[in-house]
Amino acid sequence: MSLALWPATASEQAAHIDGLFTGLLVVTGLILLLVAGLLLLFCIRYRRGTQAKRGDLPEFLRRDVELGWTAATLFLALFLFWWAGTLELRASMAPPEALEIHVVAKQWMWKARHPNGAREIDALHVPRGEAVRLVMTSQDVIHSFYVPAFRVKQDVLPGRFTEMWFRPTRTGEYRLFCAEFCGTQHSRMGGMVTVMEPEDYASWAAAQPQEQDLPGEGEALFTALGCAGCHAPASAVHAPVLQGVYGRMVHLADGRTVRADQAYLRDSILQPQRDVVAGYAPIMPSFAGLVDEADLQRLVAYLQSLRGEAAR
Ligand code: CUA
């Protein structure tokens, strides 16, 4: 049950976020009442013309009591920090088995691609009860993917992948908005998220036209761009072998260690000089300008598909 003022509660996170919101409201409300009450009390007690003096301040203002409430406030603040922090942490880490859907934003529409190649525009079908991870990018300006019923919102940026995940808990249709001003049609940029029972989602996805073999197209591009010339295991050029790289921790020349996720792979194609792998010469040229957003998705999908071949 939720207050009529609030949007529907249709994801696992939504209930937690509403709980935090209510908690913050109650805590801050109580503090407001306490401070306003004391203010009123002092205004009356120490008003002009009364006999009360600073010497007879109430008992509870003595030093030990003051220390006590300083500590209480500190612990209260730390508790709120912990509460919000753990929620934020959980919201930022998608479960590994999450269904991965790619979203591309452009002025002024949302395009989605499902794992089996099914595509849709200004609509998103998702299965109830399953974790859904969105990997998003923009073709032009900054947009923001916002589904109030799920209590999730994430900026979508050109030249970068951003991620977000949720687990829908109730079937139905929920509004999708763009929450970042992106041009004249910004207010109309939106759509519907449809939460279906998993069986219904499976049959829906199977019924969509299956046009694309993204990893296959990525492999063709990988060859056409000449990537294989250096990155093939047998190549004379000393370049990192990409089999099984996806998801692995990579040590960089500057001492950092990063996970080779989609964003890292994408950046490595566009800005190879930025995150040079330890032990390798910074000789790879940038492919920015040579590949577009769709090509990057194909290439990254291909690299991801090499995951299982690490053992060979
Ligand atoms: Cu897209 Cu506002």
From TrEMBL:
Entry keyword set: Copper, Electron transport, Heme, Iron, Membrane, Metal-binding, Respiratory chain, Translocase, Transmembrane, Transmembrane helix, Transport
Boundaries of every Cytochrome c domain copy: 213-307
Organism: Siccirubricoccus soli
Annotated family: Belongs to the cytochrome c oxidase subunit 2 family.
Location of the protein in the cell: Membrane
Protein name per UniProt: cytochrome-c oxidase
Coiled coil, from the record: none
Alphabetized Gene3D superfamilies for the sequence: 1.10.287.90, Cupredoxins - blue copper proteins
Membrane topology: Multi-pass membrane protein
Function: Subunits I and II form the functional core of the enzyme complex. Electrons originating in cytochrome c are transferred via heme a and Cu(A) to the binuclear center formed by heme a3 and Cu(B).
Annotated TM spans: 24-44, 65-85
Keyword Iron: yes
Record's catalysed reaction(s): 4 Fe(II)-[cytochrome c] + O2 + 8 H(+)(in) = 4 Fe(III)-[cytochrome c] + 2 H2O + 4 H(+)(out)
EC number(s) recorded for this UniProt protein: 7.1.1.9
Occurrences of domain Cytochrome oxidase subunit II copper A binding (ranges): 96-207
